[in-house]
Amino acid sequence: xxxxxxxxxxxxxxxxxxxxxxxxxxxxxxxxxxxxxxxxxxxxxxxxxxxxxxxxxxxxxxxxxxxxxxxxxxxxxxxxxxxxxxxxxxxxxxxxxxxxxxxxxxxxxxxxxxxxxxxxxxxxxxxxxxxxxxxxxxxxxxxxxxxxxxxxxxxxxxxxxxxxxxxxxxxxxxxxxxxxxxxxxxxxxxxxxxxxxxxxxxxxxxxxxxxxxxxxxxxxxxxxxxxxxxxxxxxxxxxxxxxxxxxxxxxxxxxxxxxxxxxxxxxxxxxxxxxxxxxxxxxxxxxxxxxxxxxxxxxxxxxxxxxxxxxxxxxxxxxxxxxxxxxxxxxxxxxxxxxxxxxxxxxxxxxxxxxxxxxxxxxxxxxxxxxxxxxxxxxxxxxxxxxxxxxxxxxxxxxxxxxxxxxxxxxxxxxxxxxxxxxxxxxxxxxxxxxxxxxxxxxxxxxxxxxxxxxxxxxxxxxxxxxxxxxxxxxxxxxxxxxxxxxxxxxxxxxxxxxxxxxxxxxxxxxxxxxxxxxxxxxxxxxxxxxxxxxxxxxxxxxxxxxxx
Length: 549
Fold this sequence. Notes:
The chain is an alpha/beta fold. The protein has helices spanning 4-14, 21-35, 45-58, 75-86, 110-123, 139-155, 158-163, 209-217, 240-252, 293-305, 310-317, 331-334, 390-397, 401-406, 420-434, 449-457, 469-484, 494-502, 526-540, 542-548, and strands at residues 41-43, 87-89, 99-103, 131-136, 165-166, 171-173, 178-184, 197-201, 226-231, 261-265, 349-355, 363-370, 377-386, 410-413, 437-443, 462-464, 488-489, 503-507, 513-517. It has an 8-stranded mixed β-sheet with strand order 5-6-7-4-8-9-3-10, sandwiched between helices. Strands 11, 12, 13, 14, 15, 16 and 17 form a 7-stranded mixed β-sheet that branches.
């Protein structure tokens, strides 16, 4: 019996297979745990190979030129399956792994693989009344694994078609009263699930974390369930995909210990590797066998000459987390996981920027702080949203405003518009509790007459900021350069990160720029505007501020 984990790892180490840092981390852990088992878990090669044997013996190809032929798994798929299914409890024999995250470039056979494993979990995993679900935000997406892959696999397999039945909404295995069914977040049947295998295909498209939480919680009464998430990267930031990706990285880095979780991340190590064909396999482990090399090469050539197509190639073929085409900065330029202790900023002078809304948009207040002999700029922000619109905004924007509120990043204002006095109160709180005093307070005068007077009455020095390219261009260019250089520490604030990824630019004939929101009205940029106004204050008063601090 072949240990495909060893075979795959040997080819990675020899350089025959090109693998990224994150994938190497996972297999180093797996190899170490095979050689040095940690009680009560042991590696059972037979248990790890059982799903592979089932798939290759009974499942048939469902699409393309190989339709009807036996499904032969690639080495990278076999190694992953053995790693997931092979670690068991030495006494009970139950699997250790409960949750699997796979990030892989498009057209690498992910839906085919998940359909086949779903059939195994329904038929051959020894679970009575197994419930297998292909889940997604929309029913059409949920049906891809089920309708386009699982059903054809069964219909073309004499054994599987003999022992399973296609019912109106599911596949049914009468011998163990088990089923395989597509399920969407808009379904009426999310309550009462008892999931043995949850398949989340294209995790990046699932904007509602509730679907993930429901599926995960519904596995609690099973002895050895698996939540299987497989996806390419996507354009929507601060969704469940980013949360799971960050969690996976922390597990791989050893920051978090979670024996029940495995992550197989196939991505480029550096964004610039997308033009180097020797690196393409890092994000596309099925390149040349499942995925066509010439097609990928053609996409790369087009992306070199088509900047609007480039984000698609980077995101979908190479799993570089990107923003949508036409946005101001790339996700790599925006992203900064650095955090700070606010005590470091205590008793400091700051520059504030305030973006006020009327009803639907966020309002945001920013404090920009610099410290002597420290090149970084520290950003403190708080957001406000009308309470009456919270449910509507969360539903339309697909953004977790309530969770952000629970984290203390955002406050809900009673009624249907923002109470500007709450903004004033926050600035006063930052002064009284932390001694962080904004010396210059930059604001958009639109709709701010009464708030401005309130701030003046409390002794704040208010500075109007006219909204336009002439005012914003140079500060925005400087802010962009500082973000790219990781010289802005915004405490890994997810709201600001989301606003930055939504920000596009408009250029005039003199190459002056100003921020605009993306094509969708739900793409908020208020956090960007607020920070940019603080930058305007810094840009216009830099020497005086340096002397002040």
